[in-house]
């Protein structure tokens, strides 16, 4: 075969770095976006963020001309005269030729010595379970040896307050010359179990409940019956086998009900309240309000990062146009791309959210029972985006509504056919199941089959196994475990 050179023209799609960045920013949550912006701010000196401190008059990301009606009511950020306007169409933050003016009064330096820093608060430090127990132990009239043995047991408590090792196991960990015998450890355990919270130091759930019942006055009604349940019959109580419980306890229905209520008031995890659980707050990206009789979405100004071009480096590039600052020129372009992509991210979120609100307006008026079936394809076709883009927009993005904070994904769901040929949202069915369970007779709770029959009477055709699936998803117990006296 003869070799030859040929020229061939063809067209194909490629993802530019700017488009790749836009896609990546779109799928980030608000927290992840702020982390990504922090990284850009550290790497690119031409980029500034003005909403994290006193940097003068901030430049915000204004909503585009195509924003939803509700966005007109959102507070607008102002900009200093001559500052680059971040427009969603041309996105020309600075083109290297226009005079750029920034606020000269911005304070970038440290505060003067002695100047108060408002708003600084030290985080509250909660005592651990071990610290709380030791502080009580120090107030007890015990010998130093006994206190050390109790502290040894405290070290073996888990986060719920249970003793995770037996006395024999703890004894085996002691050195041979410690001159401690198991009986002393048993006495130390008694001291530990008399500390607050009641039930701490227990080796099982049964013992934990017994310790708590011992702190209840002896003349409390059904106390003895509750103690018998805690010692020997917790499994019968968990399975709601009340007939067998009455027989083994030789008590009437009123006493058994009082004992059940008493046991249910006890705390099976006495040390859990000392656990250091980190609270994570959700910052909504969009706020939904009813304006002039119509539900409208608007961007949350508190979640909008306010970005601009750095004045000093902009002046350098403006004064030197001889091509000697290629690195700054490249960083300027990257900064402009980032500003444009961040703005485009929020514009897309607003468009998608408004489309969701328009289709789920009955939810905002009447609640979950009025939720209509909705799929990503329907929103994608309406806003002119691909389904994958809508999926990225609705993941880890939240809206604040009069009914609470919801992830955008919450408004999408499968549907179930109705007798009239329509469709009912799975969310609405779950809400109906929850209503039926909350209104049922607890002595004769509704079975999954009965709930399916009731829904069928309302025109919603749903199988028993589907009801069971929805019930389990809402963490509602089956009928036999919802039964009460």
Topology at a glance:
Elements: H1 17-26, H2 30-43, E1 47-49, H3 129-137, H4 144-154, H5 167-172, H6 182-193, H7 205-214, H8 223-232, H9 234-238, H10 242-249, H11 253-264, E2 286-291, E3 294-299, E4 307-309, H12 311-319, H13 326-359, H14 361-366, H15 376-383, H16 387-394, E5 398-401, E6 404-407, E7 415-417, E8 423-425, H17 426-438, H18 448-457, H19 464-473, H20 479-482
Parallel strand pairs: 2-5
Antiparallel strand pairs: 1-4, 2-3, 5-6, 7-8
The structural domain count equals 3
Uncertain parts: 54-120
Biggest sheet features = 4 strands, mixed
Number of helices: 20
Q: What are the key terms here?
A:
single chain; 485 residues; alpha+beta; Arc Repressor Mutant, subunit A; 3 domains; 4-stranded mixed sheet; 8 strands; 7% strand
Describe this structure in words.
The chain has 3 domains: about 15-70 and about 85-95 and about 280-415, no CATH class; about 130-275, no CATH class; about 415-480, Arc Repressor Mutant, subunit A. It is extended and about 95 Å long. The protein is of the alpha+beta class. It has a 4-stranded mixed sheet with strand order 3-2-5-6. A two-stranded antiparallel ribbon has the order 1-4. It has helices at about 15-25, 30-45, 130-135, 145-155, 165-170, 180-195, 205-215, 225-230, 235-240, 240-250, 255-265, 310-320, 325-360, 360-365, 375-385, 385-395, 425-440, 450-455, 465-475, 480; strands at about 45-50, 285-290, 295-300, 305-310, 400, 405, 415, 425. The chain contains 20 helices and 8 strands. Helix content is about 45%, strand content about 5%. Mean pLDDT is about 80; it is low at about 55-120. The longest helix is centred in the last third of the chain and has 34 residues, at about 325-360. α1 (about 15-25) crosses α13, α3 (about 130-135) runs antiparallel to α4 (about 145-155) and α7 packs antiparallel against α8. A hairpin with a 5-residue loop joins β7 (about 415) and β8 (about 425).
């Amino acid at each position: 075969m003869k070799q030859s050179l040929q020229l061939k023209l063809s067209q194909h799609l490629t993802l530019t770095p700017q488009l790749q960045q836009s896609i990546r920013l779109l799928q980030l949550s608000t927290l992840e976006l702020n982390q990504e912006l922090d990284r850009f701010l550290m790497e690119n000196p031409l980029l500034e963020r003005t909403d994290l401190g006193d940097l003068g008059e901030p430049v915000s990301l204004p909503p585009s001309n195509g924003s939803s009606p509700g966005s007109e009511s959102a507070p607008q950020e102002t900009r200093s005269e001559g500052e680059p306007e971040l427009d969603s169409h041309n996105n020309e933050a600075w083109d290297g030729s226009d005079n750029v003016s920034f606020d000269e009064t911005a304070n970038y330096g440290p505060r003067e010595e002695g100047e108060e820093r408002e708003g600084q608060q030290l985080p509250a430090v909660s005592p651990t379970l071990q610290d709380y127990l030791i502080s009580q132990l120090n107030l007890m009239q015990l010998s130093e040896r006994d206190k050390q043995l109790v502290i040894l047991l405290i070290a073996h408590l888990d986060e719920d307050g249970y003793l995770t090792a037996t006395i024999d196991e703890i004894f085996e960990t002691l050195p041979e010359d410690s001159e401690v015998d198991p009986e002393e450890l048993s006495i130390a355990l008694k001291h530990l179990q008399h500390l607050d919270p009641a039930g701490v130091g227990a080796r099982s759930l049964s013992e934990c409940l017994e310790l708590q019942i011992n702190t209840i006055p002896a003349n409390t009604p059904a106390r003895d019956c509750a103690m018998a349940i805690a010692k020997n019959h917790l499994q019968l109580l968990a399975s709601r086998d009340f007939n067998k419980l009455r027989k083994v306890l030789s008590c009437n229905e009123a006493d058994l009900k009082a004992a059940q209520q008493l046991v249910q008031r006890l705390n099976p995890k006495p040390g859990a309240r000392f656990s250091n659980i980190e609270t994570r707050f959700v910052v909504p990206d969009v706020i939904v309000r009813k304006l002039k009789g119509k539900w409208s979405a608007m961007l949350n100004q508190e979640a909008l990062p306010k970005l601009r071009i750095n004045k000093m480096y902009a002046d350098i590039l403006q004064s030197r146009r001889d091509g000697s600052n290629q690195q700054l020129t490249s960083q300027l372009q990257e900064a402009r791309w980032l500003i444009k992509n961040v703005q485009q991210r929020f514009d897309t979120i607003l468009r998608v959210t408004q489309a969701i609100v328009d289709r789920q307006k009955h939810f905002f008026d009447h609640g979950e029972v009025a939720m209509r079936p909705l799929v990503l394809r329907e929103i994608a076709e309406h806003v002119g985006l691909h389904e994958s883009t809508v999926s990225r927009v609705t993941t880890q993005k939240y809206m604040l509504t009069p009914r609470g904070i919801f992830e955008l994904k919450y408004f999408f769901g499968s549907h179930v056919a109705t007798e009239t040929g329509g469709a009912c949202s799975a969310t609405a069915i779950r809400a109906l199941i929850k209503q039926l369970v909350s209104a049922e007779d607890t002595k004769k709770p509704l079975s999954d089959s009965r709930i399916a029959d009731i829904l069928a009477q309302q025109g919603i055709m749903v199988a028993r196994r589907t009801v069971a699936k929805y019930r389990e998803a809402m963490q509602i117990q089956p009928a036999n475990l919802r039964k009460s006296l």
